[in-house]
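How a chain folds remains the central question behind the approach discussed here. For one protein, we set the task of working out the structure tokens from the amino acid sequence alone. The sequence in question and its structure tokens are set out directly beneath this paragraph.

_____
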Amino acid sequence: MVKRLSFFLLTIIVLISLYLSVFELLLYSFHSPLGNTIKNPTLQEATWTYLIHQKYMGFIELDTYTIYEKRHLLDVKKVFEKTYDLWIIFTLLSVVILLFFFKKIIKSVIALGISINILLIVFSLNFIKSFELFHNLFFKNNSWIFSNDSLLIQLFPLHYFQEFFILLLLLTFSIFILLYMYRYLNAKNSTLFTIT
């Protein structure tokens, strides 16, 4: 029982690392909705530079935002920084775990990962409610609610977050499929060389 629980915890750590890795990849590469023309590329670039690259408050380029938008950007930046720190910790743990326990947990990583993705798809069927729940968990006092004419809403409309989420699911599903194929081919190759 203790052994199974230990392997389950190791599986969870690896999955957290995997999801955070995909999140970080998308965070650094996916900055606007697909197929949309960026209305203010300079401002959007300055916003992303502030959110993921700068260590200090640098709102000089962001003076076009209202104080409420700036406050929310600061909250988002703090979430990104905490997420990055967690990603580093879980990735280091996962490397060690996979070095020693890859064969013992890979099946669980695949099965639980696909199950989590299916659960996320079910939650996303009502994306707006899921979006609101997520924001209420991470941003208190409704500091994330803006009118449709808000500059932040124009740069980051709801469909940006929907596309980000879809890409996260597609990438993680792809990883699980590749892991399954690797496991299957590895098992098939090992039976070819057994003496009966």
In short: The mean pLDDT is 88. The longest helix spans residues 67-124. Residues 2-36+81-192 form one domain. The CA atoms of residues 127 and 162 lie 8 Å apart.
